[in-house]
User: What shape does this take?
Amino acid sequence: MNIDWELSGMIIWGIGIISWGIIRFRPNVKSRKTTITTTKRPLKERFSMLISQMGLGILPAIWVFTGFPQSLDRTTYPAAVIIGALIFIVSLWLFRKTHKALGKMWSHSLDLREDHKLVTSGIYQHVRHPMYTAFWMWAFAQPFLLSNWFAGFAGIVGFGTLFFLRVGQEEEMMRGEFGSEYDDYVNRTKRVFPSIY
Assistant: This one.
């Protein structure tokens, strides 16, 4: 039996996207029941969200469903697809853990909710932004799964734009809300990858 590894990579990517949406659905519904007390959604935030969605979802989907741009297709290697699948599975597991740890404190943007608590337990005792870690893993899984230079690497560019435009603002907002408690948390953790960054 011959396996079409290019198609397999596309299917795994698609299943990953659907799984991501399923994981996020319930926390999204629950968090909306808790009032937002502080929000920061400047034009830069909206722009970075759009670029991230383009890179992680829209542009790859265009290639998956239309083959455009075919001129940037590359050879598919079975080992690459398997590596991409494993990275995506770990990213989904981590994504679920972050939502579980955050509970009603979760928000898709720069928001603080009523009676907001600084979450430092569970997965958050290891890094300050494990959800960003999960997104980085998705972005790095994508070029392994999608055999097109443009579609594959669009996620790294797209999410990278959001991350570097947002993470400083988010940490400043948390510092403003929690003061020295947040500074202490910063001093004992890394941003996204334990012991590295």
